[in-house]
Design a protein that fits this description.
Elements: H1 2-13, E1 30-38, E2 48-57, E3 60-70, H2 79-85, H3 89-93, H4 98-109, E4 114-116, H5 119-134, E5 142-144, H6 145-153, H7 167-174, H8 184-204
Parallel strand pairs: 1-4, 4-5
Antiparallel strand pairs: 1-2, 2-3
Helix pairs in contact: 6-8
């Protein structure tokens, strides 16, 4: 209910009518997998360094219909963050201005649902720029693959079952290829693959078996 209210308020606040399409329904049976790499883990303070988005249509991942950009940032990454996203200062200094990137990204996404892994983090990063430029937050529906995975594997599980919703665990259970993690395009592509597979499983009411011990070779996923 509260998201519906925020959506109505934001539509009234929109300062540029050219972006009214964000509040319309996207093409049927389409979604966009999205991933952002940032200077840290605080969406209120940290900045986007790279963003990638890939369209999904009718259960097909359209890798040729993708968006990717590296952004300039005045906020330096911490050494720990650099080890994760592996973007060096020279790459960031040569990146796009966020104000130039956002209109292109919004046109690419349109009114489609945004699919992500812990989607709220990525959307909150983008919302800061959308508020600055258009006085709105992204109104798109959000689909989190960790919630789909939970429904396929842990729904109805006893309290003593250990729940693991890590990206690596989801990828391992679904048999996805071990693309290096923390690259925006790779993560968006793997998220899209998770979404397609988990959506199909939920539609067929298929489940993922729970096992007592589930080792994950985290190095294979770039962790």
């Amino acid at each position: 209910m509260w998201r519906g209210l925020i959506r109505r308020l934001d539509r009234a606040r929109l300062t540029d009518p050219r972006f009214a399409f964000l509040f319309e329904k996207g093409p049927p049976d389409e979604a966009v997998a999205l991933d952002c790499e940032a200077t840290g883990l605080d969406p209120r303070r940290d900045e986007i360094l790279a963003v990638a988005a890939i369209r999904i249509r009718g259960g097909r991942i359209l890798a040729s219909e993708s968006f990717r950009a590296t952004l300039r940032s005045a906020r330096p990454s911490s050494p720990a963050a650099i080890k994760v996203h592996r973007l060096l200062g020279a790459e960031i200094r040569q990146g796009l201005d966020p104000a130039a990137m956002l209109p292109e990204l919004l046109r690419f996404i349109g009114g489609r649902p945004i699919v992500g892994y812990y989607t709220d983090f990525d959307v909150r990063l983008l919302d800061r720029h959308a508020r600055r430029m258009l006085r709105i937050r992204l109104p798109n529906p959000r689909i989190d693959v960790s919630a789909l995975y939970y429904a396929c594997k842990y729904r109805g599980a006893p309290d003593y079952v250990k729940i693991d919703l890590s990206f690596a665990r989801i990828a391992a259970d679904l048999g996805l290829p071990p693309l290096p993690q923390h690259d925006a395009f790779n993560d968006a592509l793997m998220t899209a693959m998770m979404y397609v597979q988990l959506s199909d499983m939920l539609e067929r009411r298929a489940t993922i078996p729970r096992r007592a011990a589930e080792p994950v070779e985290s190095a294979a996923f770039g962790a």
